[in-house]
Amino acid sequence: MKNNITIYDIAREAKVSPATVSRVLTGSARVSVEKSRIIREIIEKYDFQPNAIARSLVKKESRTIGVILPDIVNPFFATVFLEAEKYAVSLGYSMLLCNSINDMFESNIALESIYLKTLTEKQVDGIIFLGGRINMVRTDKKLAEEMNTVLAKVPIVMINGRMGGVDCYKVRSDEREGIFSIVEYLTSLGHRSIGFIGGRLNVTSTAIKLNALKDALRHFKLEFNEKWIVISGDFNIENGAKAMKTLLSEKERPTAVIAVNDTVAIGAMKYAASVGVDIPGDISITGFDDSYLCDIVTPRLTSVSHNIPELARKAVDMLCYTFANRSVPKERIVRTSLTIRESCACPRNI
Q1: Model confidence band, residue 103 (pLDDT cutoffs 50, 70, 90)
Q2: Whole-angstrom distance between the N-terminal and C-terminal Cα of the chain?
Q3: Which of 30, 97, 201, 269 has the most neighbouring CB atoms within 10 Å?
Q4: Any residues with CB less than 8 A from the CB of 176 and at least 6 apart, and which?
């Protein structure tokens, strides 16, 4: 059996043109029943698998979606990617993961630029973008221009992000709704003093949650105390511990704390336990993301779910609709929900 068989070998043996073989492979034009039968028998005989790049040149599609995210270790980003990949594969698409390594914001942005160029050169059918530049509170004009250059060639869907001046598709979870659900739950337990820890002020996921907290506290006629807001500069376990240390040093402490995400909440719980502060007896803590981590800590962490499977499916669907030239709204919103576990309880003075 001949190795590395090509479309030209198939054509030669079938006594037809390479274009005819291509038409049989793609089903894009009519070929006589007899010729089609002969060509397919030869294809089957050699177990011929057409090269993916060759198919993409014929059909003008690569059946590939690129994903750019800042931190594959972060449970939120990892789970979004896995759910998107699972769904995309079921639709016949492959995924290319580009992890922009969120160790320093500057290097994160530089890697994003490299990946945008690489994915465009690889002729992916679309790009799903998370974190980094699309989570900056103030849009960088040059970065927006770069996105628009790519957008002119490839459709882009942003998940939980936005950029001023970039008119692409967006799907986001309703983080404001999530914060309101936490505050409503904590007030139902009797909490009247609520703090917030973690994140960065120049990142939208922090800003959205903090603004929602102010509005929710106002709605429930509770005090917003600046001393109970500790923006620790990042979203990891170490910064959660650092934020909780700062909060516990206050003479007056809140009875409940909302963390910007689950990893910050776990860091806060870890530090609290190390200094003899009982969770939830002395202080209640909630996370945000409802990641798998919530069920493996003690006590299990109450957290807000982004409904990640739906978030991921909507992002992939938006791209697929554009591939098929179907109309689709520019923005989709996914509702959040609160998952109650054991990290919250009534304050001791109730």
Answers
A1: low
A2: 82
A3: 269
A4: 208, 211, 212, 215
Query: 173: which 2 tokens?
Result: 């979870």
| Rounded CA Rg of the chain | 26
- Topology (CATH) of 175-306: Rossmann fold (3.40.50)
> Which tokens belong to 91?
């639709």
Burial of 56 (0-12, 13-18, 19+ CB in 10 A): middle
Q: Indicate if the pLDDT at residue 271 is higher than 70.
A: yes
What average pLDDT does the structure give for the chain? 90
Q: Is 69 helix (H, G, I), strand (E, B) or coil?
A: strand
Domain locations in the chain as residue ranges? 7-59, 64-174+307-336, 175-306
Rounded to whole angstroms, the maximal C-alpha distance in the chain is 89
Side-chain-facing half-sphere of 132: CA atoms under 13 Å: 32
Q: Would you state the structure tokens that stand for residue 99, as one six-digit string?
A: 């992890």
pTM: 0.81
pLDDT in tens, 209-250: 999 999 999 999 999 999 999 998 889 999 999 999 999 999
Tokens of 194: 């609520």
Angstrom CA distances, 132 to 66, 161, 162, 333, stand at 16, 9, 10, 20
Rounded Cα distance, 197 and 247, in Å: 8
Tokens of 211: 């603004």
Decide whether 64-174+307-336 matches 175-306 in CATH topology: yes
CATH architecture of 64-174+307-336: 3-Layer(aba) Sandwich (3.40)
As beta bridge partners, residue 338 has 304
Amino acid symbol at 225: N
* DSSP element (H, E) containing 234: none
Using CA atoms, how far apart are residues 157 and 252, in angstroms rounded to an integer? Answer: 44
Arch. (CATH architecture) of 7-59: Orthogonal Bundle (1.10)
Reference 206, options 218, 216, 215, 196; nearest CA is: 196
Mention every residue, 6+ apart, whose C-beta is less than 8 A from residue 46: 1, 2, 5, 9, 10
